[in-house]
Amino acid sequence: MTKLFITGKTQLLGVIGHPVEHSLSPVMHNAAIAELGLNYVYLPFPIKPENLEVAMAGFTAVNVVGLSVTIPHKQAIIPLLSKITPIAQAIGAVNTVSCQNQRWLGTNTDIEGFIAPLQTTYQQDWSDKVAVILGSGGAARAVVAGCQQLGFAQIHVVGRNMQKLIEFRNSWGSSPMAEKLQVNTWDYVAKLIPQANLLVNTTPVGMYPLVNESPISAADMQKLSPDAIAYDLIYIPNPTQFLQEAEKQGAIAINGLEMLVQQGVAALKIWLQRETLPVDVMRQALKNYLGL
């Protein structure tokens, strides 16, 4: 790997959020930049919500090339952008922005990150398949859009608050997404699990400090088909309790590390304007950092 040197010509990339200290994006992006021998550096920028507008003006002034956008700015940043892609519009959130001619353009690479391991490792016809998505927050929106893009016949979203679920469903309007989308409260999950070809956890249950918990009880997980895929967006611990229970049923388990890598790859392609990136280097850098 080429060593990274900061010079007077070094171009800036980064991640904005609050907090942002936990972000693993600098680890994988700087590993890729060093491997490619490019004169860029990727930095974490902790930006409080009330400082977002002035921060974006500052980033424009110092010619920042691009930024990853994380909580709590994924929705708040939209009015500050000149343009957002249709997919970011549909999800209602932006996770990647690039500056072109002093104008900020926003998109969402979470969909690409989510579907990448499904497309590359488990290539199949999804048109008669059923997806069950646990949780109805921002991450669930990207997963719903990804399942629609893959062509799932039915997409079930499970949440705790029926009013929020109805708002979630209605927010897709009359798009193709809305035709396939059904929302269900948590007491219905036991009936949905046997139907699931893909079961996705988008909730924080299973990550620190809830590392010994799963959003699905062990008894309900026993209803999961051994032919199903269980996908947890959480990547620490690996495997989560949710994935451990799924594997006991013989199901295929995917953790969130690959989604993190692939959404980062998609963002870096936009910023660097190149199609080929050292994906293995990015993945290995994360594994080394996490001790996996």
Automatic annotation (TrEMBL):
GO biological process: amino acid biosynthetic process; aromatic amino acid family biosynthetic process; chorismate biosynthetic process; shikimate metabolic process
Binding, shikimate: S23, L24, S25, T70, N95, D110, Y235, Q263
Binding site for NADP(+): G135, S136, G137, G138, A139, L233, G256
Active site, UniProt feature: K74
Highest rank taxon of the organism: Bacteria
Reaction it catalyzes: shikimate + NADP(+) = 3-dehydroshikimate + NADPH + H(+)
Start and end residues of each Shikimate dehydrogenase substrate binding N-terminal domain: 15-97
UniProt GO MF annotations: NADP binding; shikimate 3-dehydrogenase (NADP+) activity
SDH C-terminal domain mapped to chain residues: 256-287
Signal peptide: none
Pathways per UniProt: Metabolic intermediate biosynthesis; chorismate biosynthesis; chorismate from D-erythrose 4-phosphate and phosphoenolpyruvate: step 4/7
Keywords: Amino-acid biosynthesis, Aromatic amino acid biosynthesis, NADP, Oxidoreductase
Family in the record: Belongs to the shikimate dehydrogenase family.
Function noted in UniProt: Involved in the biosynthesis of the chorismate, which leads to the biosynthesis of aromatic amino acids. Catalyzes the reversible NADPH linked reduction of 3-dehydroshikimate (DHSA) to yield shikimate (SA).
Protein name from the UniProt record: Shikimate dehydrogenase (NADP(+))
